[in-house]
Design a protein that fits this description.
By secondary structure, this protein is α/β, with parallel strands linked by helices. The chain folds into two domains: about 160 residues, no CATH class; about 280 residues, Aldolase class I (TIM Barrel), CATH 3.20.20. The chain contains eleven helices and 21 strands. The strands form four sheets. The protein has an eight-stranded parallel β-sheet with strand order 20-19-18-17-13-12-11-21. The longest helix has 22 residues.
């Protein structure tokens, strides 16, 4: 008989014990993170779970409103237990992420793992795997590695069918402005690199303008004066025969933004901090917000943009009261993403980033599956390979739920980790992107970029 024996966070249902699973000392647990930037990996008994060190980090990398356990590990909508003896893995998950996603917790108790969840989960024994495989922790784990891989693949197939995943989207090759220009990008920078792509005959499908083209969160219709002519730049990209890509963070606004001051009734809950401002989620059930988003994306569509990187999407699902008081945060989030898809059309390529994982299935073509390669200040490689762990762990999602985005290769000489990162992104399935000023690349950097774009093996 299930029992309540765990303390819930504010506004979250209590944890209900689901099952106790017999395991061996080699047992491992896969815990799926809440969104693109959330830690996702396999854990063994005794491994310390990844934890936020401050409130802002919890809001922006973990699940707002869901406490991180003091003991054990927690997945959001998916948890897999690999017993470690070659026997099939046990899967605990939801195949319906349209209105809510249960948190699922695993705690070791000697020779068993106790599983509890905040809502209804399905549980099944996965089909047996074959030989061992590298599945997220960098090791070949023999039979138990194969069991884990088979379990994730099986869940992916079920989830893809249940949520009508957008399979078949192409693995595009992308040049992105972000890791070289950050918020200081200009139209001239884009044109310079567009010419360099042609000059070096690099096989690039998308030229994507990242953050920096607009005046800030909530001000998406206002072009930053220092950027230049956005419409002309997009036209130049399209005239080159490539997709024109644009970055937006449409579900999150700055608390000091003009939009937030004019429409306080459009705001929901705290969503962290960035751009020198507190971030707040938008109420995607509010008629005013929906009209604003419909108008915004109609304008974007008219510009000729046919590739969108939608960032900080978790802000649409933060726990808070909403105009529609029957809508959960997850349902509100999906309604907002569905609105963008409707306005932009089926032919526009949508890439989710900072996006709730399971609630996005069926609405996006591609998904960032790891944190940013680095933040400003980490251009020398001093922040390490931040994305490697989740990138490896989520490899199973590619071609099943969407096209994986491992984030951009940075190949310039000043990035000390370029060789190591190049091996990671070449080995990872999915989009092939890079983010350098091409004229600053040395011969080795150009070689690494060309190998990535041409699909050379790792």
């Amino acid at each position: 008989m299930p029992r309540e024996d765990h303390v819930a966070g504010p506004g979250r249902p209590p944890m209900i014990t689901v099952e106790a699973v017999p395991v061996t000392p080699r047992a491992r647990v896969y815990a799926e993170g809440w969104q693109s930037w959330s830690p996702t990996t396999w854990y063994r008994s005794g491994d310390a779970p990844h934890r936020p060190t401050e409130t802002r980090q919890h809001l922006m990398r973990f699940r707002p409103g869901a406490p991180v356990p003091e003991a054990g590990v927690q997945g959001e909508g998916l948890l897999v237990i690999d017993p470690g003896d070659g026997a099939p893995a046990r899967v605990f998950g939801t195949l319906d992420a349209a209105t809510d996603v249960p948190s699922i917790r695993a705690v070791w108790h000697g020779d068993r793992i106790e599983v509890a969840a905040t809502g209804v989960v399905q549980a099944w024994v996965a089909e047996s795997g074959g030989a061992g495989s590298r599945d997220g922790d960098g090791d070949d784990d023999g039979p138990d590695g194969a069991a884990g891989t088979a379990a994730l693949a099986g869940f992916g197939e079920r989830m893809a069918v249940a949520a009508a995943a957008r399979r078949g989207s192409p693995d595009l090759r992308v040049w992105c402005t972000w890791y070289r220009y950050f918020e200081s990008v200009t139209a001239a920078d884009v044109r310079e690199n567009l010419n360099a792509i042609d000059r070096h005959r690099l096989p690039v499908d998308v030229v994507q303008i990242d953050d920096g083209w607009s005046t800030g969160t909530g001000e998406w219709t206002r072009i930053r004066p220092g950027f230049g002519a956005l419409a002309d730049t997009i036209a130049a990209i399209r005239d080159s025969g490539r997709r024109a890509g644009l970055w937006l963070a449409p579900f999150t606004v700055g608390a000091a933004s003009d939009l937030a001051r004019r429409h306080p009734d459009w705001l929901t809950g705290a969503a962290g901090a960035n751009w020198g401002d507190r971030l707040v989620g938008l109420d995607l059930t509010h008629p005013g917000v929906r009209a604003y988003l419909a108008d915004l994306f109609a304008r974007v569509r008219e510009l000729g943009v046919d590739y969108l990187k939608l960032d900080f999407l978790y802000g649409g699902a933060v726990p808070a009261p909403r105009f529609d008081d029957t809508a959960t945060g997850v349902a509100a989030y999906r309604s907002g993403l569905a609105l963008i898809r409707e306005v932009m059309g089926e032919d526009v390529y949508l890439l989710g980033c900072g996006a709730p994982i399971l609630p996005s299935v069926g609405l996006v073509d591609a998904m960032r599956v790891s944190p940013d390669t680095f933040h400003e200040g980490g251009e020398d490689g001093s922040q390490g390979l931040r994305g490697r762990m989740s990138l490896r762990a989520r490899a199973w999602q590619h071609g099943v739920l969407w096209v994986n985005d491992p984030d951009c290769l940075v190949a310039r000489p000043g990035f000390a980790l370029r060789e190591e990162w190049a091996r990671e992104v070449r080995a990872a399935p999915g989009l092939r992107g890079f983010s350098d000023r091409i004229d600053e690349l040395d011969a080795r950097g150009l070689h690494l970029v060309r190998r990535l774009l041409e699909g050379a093996p790792a």
